[in-house]
Write a structure and sequence with these properties.
By secondary structure, the protein is an alpha+beta fold. 26% of the residues lie in helices and 29% in strands. The chain has 10 helices and 22 strands. The strands form 7 sheets. Strands 9-10-20-13-22-11 form a 6-stranded mixed sheet. A hairpin with a 3-residue loop joins strand 6 (66-70) and strand 7. The chain is elongated and about 80 Å long. Residues 118-367 form the TauD/TfdA-like domain.
Length: 388
């Protein structure tokens, strides 16, 4: 329960509002922020949850004219132009500017907690039909996918089309140049190295796109008797290891733009080109996305010649960590399994298998964007946890 408001007052000649809560805590709110976020019908379109106030009309130096407390559950403010605003206690408390409150809100919005793993991964498993029919199971799936980076859905029908159903469950799938879904099997004149029987080294999919797909689904429809094992590795865990043991290599991979290319014909003809850093980092220098696909790394390399060899040395150390037995997890999909994983975090590969006169191994693949997945996760979070 949100505590009531004990006292409210203006500070700093009206530039701030201080709220004293009944539990003894305090919050301070800048008046420019309060005016910017007025919840009245003139300033805010409630049906869309969107601000109507035009920014050019906002006085960034605004001060409060009068502030009053109404029944300990909301404050009322009158501004110099006589515009009136009201703010509910619960709304204010959630948006407190203290470090603790901001961290709590970010946790609720983005679920940033991560569980790192190596060869000791206990692969999370959930029945496919439960995910399709039960909100709690879907919520568990998506929460685990966000936290661990990989979840295996079991018991789907071994036929094409199940991923389209899964896409509808979360919202919609991501269309790419390989189609809304795509078939991973041995093909003559393959337009992708995945469409062969050879070994696939650890990689993330589609770093050649400016915004690579966030989540990948692979549905096993047919599995070869020998070979074809899948391998995964936690790229964020590896990045942390590299940062600790060789900070210079980490700095090179997180700052060097690498050229990627993909040219061919599939869903339509394409000629895609992009620059990505192998390790994308945030403002705290923490890895937020891995962009590594050796197959589509271009022969063009747009860096000074003297930086080329140090880059290769750094990438070799990163790749060695990826392939270390203590870091990679190996498993074999069986028909009806759908592996779902974070394509920004988890690098995946495949062991080779023998070609045959007919298709012996067939996976159907699809992508979804994290925006779509997180949207569904937030909606389910409210529904399952009964949050307003």
């Amino acid at each position: 329960m949100t505590p009531g408001i004990q006292k409210v007052e203006a500070l700093d000649t009206g530039h701030f509002i201080r709220v004293e809560w009944e539990d003894g805590s305090e919050s301070c709110y800048p008046c420019v922020w309060l005016r910017d976020n007025c919840q009245c019908p003139h300033c805010f379109l409630r049906s869309a949850g969107a601000r109507k106030l035009v920014f050019k009309d906002l006085d960034v130096n605004i001060v409060v004219k009068e502030v009053t407390l109404a029944d300990r559950k909301k404050i009322s403010i009158t501004w110099p132009d006589e515009h009136a605003s009201e703010y509910e206690a619960e709304w204010l408390k959630k948006r407190c500017f203290s470090e603790e409150a901001r961290a709590e809100m970010q946790e609720d919005l983005f679920l940033p907690e991560r569980h790192y793993w190596g060869s000791d991964l206990q692969l999370p498993k959930i029945p496919f039909e439960e995910v399709m029919c039960d909100d709690e199971s879907t919520y568990k799936w998506l929460c685990t996918l966000k936290k661990v980076g990989i979840v295996l859905l079991t018991g789907a029908a071994p036929r094409q089309g199940e991923l389209v159903k899964l896409g509808h469950r979360i919202g919609f799938l991501r269309l790419t140049f390989y189609g809304p879904t795509w078939q991973v099997q041995d093909k003559a004149d393959a337009n992708n190295v995945a469409y062969t029987t050879g070994k696939l080294c650890f990689h993330t999919d589609y770093p050649v796109l400016q915004h690579p797909p966030g989540v990948q689904f692979l549905h096993c429809i047919k599995q070869t008797a020998a070979g074809g094992e899948s391998e995964v590795v936690d790229g964020f865990h590896i990045s942390n290891k590299l940062k600790t043991q060789n900070p210079q290599a980490y700095q090179i991979l997180s700052s060097t733009p690498v050229d990627y290319t993909d040219v061919g014909v599939d869903y339509c003809d394409f000629a895609v080109q992009c620059k990505q850093r192998i390790i994308d980092v945030d403002s705290r220098d923490q890895a937020v996305r891995i962009n590594y696909n050796n197959a589509t790394r271009d022969t063009v390399f747009d860096i000074p010649v003297e930086k080329v060899r140090p880059f290769y040395a750094a990438l070799k150390e990163f790749d060695d960590l990826l392939n270390s037995t203590e870091h990679k997890f190996t498993y074999k999909l069986k028909p009806g399994d759908i592996v779902t994983f974070d394509n920004w975090r988890v690098l995946h590969g495949r062991q080779s298998y023998e070609p045959g006169s007919e298709v012996t191994r067939h996976l159907e693949g699809a992508y979804a964007d994290w925006d779509v997945v997180m949207s569904r996760l937030r909606l389910l979070r409210k529904r399952v946890l009964n949050r307003d």
